[in-house]
Amino acid sequence: MLRLEKRPSPSAFWQKASPFLAVILTMIAGGIMFWILGKNPVEAIRTIFWDPLFNAQFASYSRPQLLVKAAPLILIAIGLSLGFRAGVWNIGAEGQYIMGAIFGAAAGLAVYPVESRLIFPAMLMAGALGGWLWAMIPAVLKTVFRTNEILVSLLLVYVAQNILAMMALGALRNPDGGGFPGSRNLSQIPAMANPEMVAGTGMHWGVVAAFMAVIAGHVLLQRHLLGFQIKLAGQAPRAARFAGVSPARLVIFCLGVSGLLAGLAGVFEVTGPAGQISIDFASGYGFTAIIVAFLGRLNPVGILFAGLLMALTYIGGELAQFMLSLPSAAIQAFQGMLLFFLLATDILTNYRIRLSQREAA
Amino acid sequence: MKRRNLLATAALGLGLALGGGAFAQGMDKVKACFVYVGPIGDGGWTFQHHQGALAVQEAYGDKVEIAWQENVPEGADAERVLTQMALSGCNIIFTTSFGYMDATNAVAAKFPDIKFEHATGYKREHPNVSTYNARFYEGRAVQGHIAGKMTKSNKIGYIASFPIPEVIMGINSYYLHAKKANPNVELSVVWAFTWFDPAKEADAAKALIDQGVDVIASHTDSTAPLAEAAKTNGAVIGFGQASDMAEYKDGPRVSSIIDNWAPYYVKRVGQLMDGTYEQIDAWEGIAGGEVEIGEITDKVPAEVKAEAEAMRDAIAAGTYHPFTGPINKQDGSPWLAEGETAPDGDLLGMSFYVEGIVGDIPK
């Protein structure tokens, strides 16, 4: 019989290895699901994990697309991971992402059609401000009134989505768009566009920012007193308080940084890959980033790889749907399995599995 | 059109190379690809597009290969999906929702040899982008007539998706004909801001029923409004939208608008094969077979059914246009004079309600 036995201390090996085990288990369980659906499981797994990277027909396009898809996930997840480490639960990055895009797009469109090199940086600042302000609402409510930041930040996502619809239909609607909803296409306006720096590489400013965030996150956590305080507050809140860490300051800092980064991700997206403020602009990056943060073990470098892996399942999943006529629900189930196995294998960090004899009655 | 086809075919028959080449050459085998905004199982909009795709397969057998992708979000992801389709060797790509407009044009620029067909949009920025739509407002006229005759509370409802011209013209057509059939009728519009979200659509239907509405039309893709109406034990009726939704025939569904994309898809893929393909802006209605009125059930009195069918036939014959003056705008200013019919341009950019509808179009 299988039995779980608590480890005296968390296993360093399994902390690193469990994500890999989760990916392997996902492949096995997913393969069984694809097989039940009447598809060749090996072909399906290969299409999802291999073709986007190495298929001669697609790879030259889909490899750079991995960066495009992963960049906002990584940028948002880095911000979230700081809070998650400190026990500050910002679940509303999606709303901060939307508000960042709206603020950024509004700043640019306000001066349309002025052409100036200063417009794009100004939009970035406006977007960061938008995300930061939206995150400050749960932060202030928590520090002043002790409200639960999980609920407030989550519910503000729905507020943001409605503001988005309002903007797409109203204030930011393209006046030359014949009454159709949606703003001007920012990616077609040189002063506001966030194009690929080198054609065909997928590198845009958002990707650069994501890499910078990874480095900054790493330095903060490894080398900086604030990083130490964040880790301490999460692991031992009482000890942190005795050590002079102000909980209110940490809440403001963690929510502020994650809101700011989510807001930036929003501007990069709206000026680049998405192109315009539209009713469907929000694509769930803010929620997926939560998975990415945990998949990456709340570690900046881990998040970098987790973001790329998540992007791979999206792009490979699209290919599998299209090439093998897999239903999109099967791909979503596959991605769900990944999170499920990740959480399930997590138990190996703190417990070990023992085979034991059934005790005699 | 016919003349041009003839000329093109003749040119091909003589083996003359037409300028440009790409459009004039036929193809032996075509890969036709389809991008869907919802799941094929929505029972409405996407389901019907997929039926059209299957009809293409049926019509040409192994000379055509079809591929599709469902649940593609309208936004940044659409462009990637389209590019991957183009790279995989699709010869013609049908993008079946309004929100794919910019993505379709952007990808079309990169693949000039691939044909792109965008449903319900208006941007044709490149010679390889065509647009197609159906005159759904013709079907709405027939529905409006039935609604006006059938309502007992004199309150009829409409679940609208997004405030774009296509939806607004449907609401106007529905209301005008309900009003003509029953001068006391009042219309409530609920905006769902989604094409497909059964939960939201059901909520919208519930809100309408709570207001005393007893006939519901919808411009969203799922069967949820009918399912909601079915809970009222026959007090509330509705219509199948996009697809016949025949499973509700014994319940609330009294008729339907069926989008039949098959003739258009079969025609366009056929043109690509025989070399007569050209860029077009297609807008067919009941006459062209793209808009069908689903069976009107026995719940509707024979007399009303006969009137509705007469209207359908008159529209098909071209003797009646659903927007025939005098019609005023909501603010009372004149739109169409006595006997004047609406020009297509007015309809395609429609951003106002007609006189008598209460409420504002969301801004």
The helix count of chain B comes to 11
Structural class estimated from helices and strands of chain A? mainly alpha
Report the top-level CATH class of the largest domain in chain B: Alpha Beta
Radius of gyration of chain A over alpha carbons? Answer: 22 Å
Please describe what this structure looks like.
The complex is a heterodimer of chains A (361) and B (363). Chain A is mostly helical and 361 residues long. Chain A has one domain (78-347): ABC transporter involved in vitamin B12 uptake, BtuC (Orthogonal Bundle). Chain A is 70% helix and 3% strand. Chain A has 15 helices and two strands. Chain A has a two-stranded antiparallel ribbon. In chain A, helix 6 packs antiparallel against helix 7 (149-169). Chain A is globular, with a radius of gyration of 22 Å. Chain B folds into two domains: 2-135 and 260-284, Response regulator (Rossmann fold, 3-Layer(aba) Sandwich), CATH 3.40.50; 136-258 and 292-348, 3-Layer(aba) Sandwich (Rossmann fold), CATH 3.40.50.2300. The longest helix of chain B is centred in the middle third of the chain and has 17 residues, at 165-181. Chain B has helices at 2-13, 45-60, 76-87, 101-110, 136-150, 165-181, 198-210, 224-230, 262-274, 302-317, 344-348; strands at residues 30-35, 64-69, 92-95, 115-119, 129-134, 155-160, 186-191, 215-218, 237-242, 253-259, 281-284, 291-294, 327-328, 334-336. Chain B has eleven helices and 14 strands. Chain B is of the alpha/beta class and 363 residues long. In chain B, helix 3 packs parallel to helix 4 (101-110) and helix 7 crosses helix 8 (224-230). Chains A and B meet through helix 4 and helix 13 of A and strand 2 and helix 3 of B.
